Amino acid sequence: MLVAENLTKDYKDITAVNNVSFRVEPGRIFGLLGPNGAGKTTTIRTILNIIKPTSGRILFDGEPINDQFFNIIGYLPEERGLYKKSKAIDVILYFARLKNMDKKTALSKADYWLKKLDISQYRHKKIEELSKGNQQKVQFITTIIHNPRLIVLDEPFAGFDPINQQLIREIIISLSGLGKTIILSTHQMDTAEKLCSDIFLINKGKEVCSGSMIDIKKRFGTNTVRIIFEGDGSFISTLPSVIRIEKSNSLSETSNISSSLEVTLKDDIHPKDFLKDIMNRLSLTHFSVVEPALDKIFIDVIRNSQ
Question: Do both 32 and 173 map to the same domain?
Answer without folding.
Answer: yes
